[in-house]
Amino acid sequence: ELVSCVGWTTADELYSCSDDHQILKWNPVTSEATRVVKLPDEVYPLDLHWFPRGIGAKKQSQAESFVLTSSDGKFHLISKLGRVEKSVEAHCGAVLAGRWNYEGTALVTAGEDGQVKIWSKSGMLRSTLAQQGSPVYSVSWAPDSDKVLYTSGKQLIIKPLQPNAKVLQWKGHDGLILKTDWNSVNDLILSAGEDCRYKVWDSFGRVLYNSQPHEYPITSIAWALDGEFFAVGSFNTLRLCDKTGWSYALEKPNTGSIFAISWSIDGTQLAGACGNGQVIFAHVVEQHWEWKNLEITLIKRRTMKVHNVLNDAVDLLEFRDRVIKASLNYGYLVVSTSLQCYVFSTKNWNTPLIFDLKEGTVSLILQAERHFLLVDGGGLYLYSYEGRLISSPKYPGMRTDILNAKTVSLSNDTLAVKDKADEKVIYIFEALSGKPLGDGKPLTHKTEIVEIALDQKGLTSERKIAFIDKNRDLFITSVKRFGKEQKIVKIGTMVQSLAWNDTSNILCGIQDSRFTVWYYPNTVYVDKDLLPKTLYEKDASEFSKSPQIVSFVGNQVTIRRADGALAHLHISPYPALLHGHVSASRWEEGVRLCRFVKDQTLWACLAAMAVANKDMTTAEIAYAAIGEIDKVQYINSIKELPSKESRLAHMLLFSGNTQEAETLLLQSGLVYQAIQVNINLYNWERALDLAVKHRTHVDTVLAYRQKFLEDFGKKETNQRFLQYAEGVSV
C-alpha cells in the first residue's frame, strides 16, 4: 500500500508508516528494513512527527517518541519501540497533520473538520486555535513557536497563539494548498499546491519565488534544517531547490506521488514516502566551493575533488565519515563530518589537521584570516587553524540552532551575533577571550536587524560593523564602545545584500537596482559630505531581481542571480592599493598613485583617509584635487595654529566632533578657544556656561551675542543673557 509519512530519528535511522498499517524502521546505510509494530486495522496513518531532541543541555542523542495522526480522528503518541502510549480523540474525520513545536512543549493538529487545535506534551487539549468550513491540509510552527501557519483552501493563514493578535491571511495558490513548511533559521515559508506550483514566501506573506507550473500537483515540500535548500515532491518527481527558489537538480524516480519528505538532522540526506509503497532515499552531492583559483566539489558522500584551474591539478580528498558542512576561504578548507573536523591548507592537501567534535552536527562554519568558527546545536566554538579551541562565547538565551551566515559575522579579533530573542540587538565578543567587548553592553538599534557583517582588516580599535535593518537600510558603526555612544550612521537604502572585501576594508552591496561599492566607509566619521564622492555605482539590472552577493575576494565580486546563475564583476584595483599604502603610512606613495590614476573617487578616499589619520599635508593636496577649496583653506588655517592641542581640536571640529573638540581644549586649559568655538557655532548657551563657570570672558560672549542680535535686528529674549548683561558693561 502507499506510504503516507516518514521521519528520521538519527542521521542513520528512519521510520515510515503506510496504509498497510505497518510502521517500519529503515537503516539507509545497510538498506535493511525491520517492522516496529502493526497498527490496528482501522488506523490509517496520515502524518508522523518525531518529538524534538531538546534544546541546549538536555539534548538526547536521538528522538524517543513520535506523534502519529490517523484517519479515525485520533492522534497517537508512540514510543520508539512501537508502544502506543496514548491515543487521543482529536477531530471529527481524519487528523490530517500533527506537528510538535521547536521546544517540544506543544503539539498542533489539523483536521478534516476544519479545526486547528493545540495540545500539551502529554496530549491534553489546550485550545482550539481556529475553526473553518474546509479541511486544513497542512500546519507549521513559526520559528519562535508563537504563531501557527495553516492552510484554508487556496489561502494561507498565520495565526498567533495569543488571543486578539493580528491574523495574517493571503491567497497563496490558484488550487488547493496541500503542504506548507516554515524554516526556523531563515524564517521563510514554503507552500505547494494543486495548481502544480510551489512558492517561497517571507513571514509577512510576500512572495519571493513562484515556480513554473509542473505537470502534476505538488504533493510534498520540506526545508532542510539549516534553511539552505528545500526539496519538492510530485508524481514521479523529486526536485532539490535553493532557498531563493531556483532548482539545483531534478530527478524522475519511478515512485508514484511522493506524499511526504523528511530531511535528516544533518541535512545531507532525505527520505520520501511514495505512492507505490516504496520509500525513496536521496543524498545531496555536488556541492561546490570556490576561492581564487580553486574549485572544490563533493563528488560522493565521503569524497571531495579539488581542482586547481591554474595548472589543472586534481586532488581527491577522502573522509572517514560523510561530509556535513565545508567552507573554503583565506587559504584553508575546513570540513566537518559527522564526528570530526578536518582543516586543510590549500598549499598542501595531503596532511590535514583532524580533531574530534563533541556535539556532532555542525550547522555553520565561518572563516576569518586567523581562525574559524563552528556552530552546532550546543554552542559557538572558535578554533585556530592549528585545531586549538580558542574560546566559546555565550550570551543569555542563546539558541545556536537558528544562526546562519547572515546573523553571525567573524573577523580576526571580533565575533558578532544577532540575537533571535530581541532582533534589535547585536552581541559583540572579543574573539580570543570569548568575553563581551568593551563595557559588555550589546549594540542596540532602533529597528529589527536582518543581516550583519564585520570588516576584516585594520586595527582592532577601528573595527566596524555594517548591518541591514528590516527597512533594508544599511548602517555602519564602530564595534568598540567605552561609555561614549558611537554614532550609528546610515550609508545606504534598499540594500538587498552586502559583503566586505577580504583584504581591505571596502564594502560592496546591491542597493535597489544599483551595484554599489563603498571604497572607504569610514568617511562618514571623517567628513560626511565626502561619502557620495567615495562610492562606485553600476547599474545592476543585468543581475535580474533580488541578486545575492556570494563573495568579494581581491577585486572580484561574485553575485548569484535569482535564477541561480553566477555572475562575476571586477572592480578597480586602485582603492585596495590605496588602502595598503595608507595602512602602512606611505602617504607620498598614496598621493603618487592618485596622481597616476587621475580619478576623483580615489582622491576623495585619500582625503578622508588623511583626515582620519590626521595627516594634514596629504589632506590638503587631496581636497585641492577634488576642488573643495573651503576645506583646503580651513586645513591651512589649522596648520598655522600655534599649539598641538588646538590643532588637534580643530581637526576634530573638521570631522564634526564638536563635543570632543571642546573637551580637548578645556583639558589643555585653552578655555578661551573652547568659548570661541561655541560662539562660532552659535552655541550661545554653552559659551555663556563655560565663561561663567571659568569666570572669564563673560563680556566677550555678551559682546558677540549683542553684535549677532544687532546684525539680525533682533531683541534679546534669553533670561540668562539679560541677567548677566545688567552686571557687565560691554
CATH topology of the domain at 3-283: Methylamine Dehydrogenase, Chain H
The CATH superfamily title of the domain at 3-283: YVTN repeat-like/Quinoprotein amine dehydrogenase
Report the end-to-end length measured between terminal Cα atoms: 104 Å
- Main sheet characteristics: 4 strands, antiparallel
Q: Briefly, what CATH class of the domain at 3-283?
A: Mainly Beta
Radius of gyration: 31 Å
- Range of strand content: 35-45%
Report the structural category.
alpha+beta
Which stretches of 5+ consecutive residues score pLDDT under 50? none
* General form: elongated
Kindly state the number of beta strands. Answer: 54
Number of helices: 12
> How is the largest sheet built, in terms of strand order?
1-2-3-4
The appropriate CATH architecture of the domain at 3-283 is 7 Propeller
Overall average residue pLDDT: 91
The share of residues in helices is: 10-25%
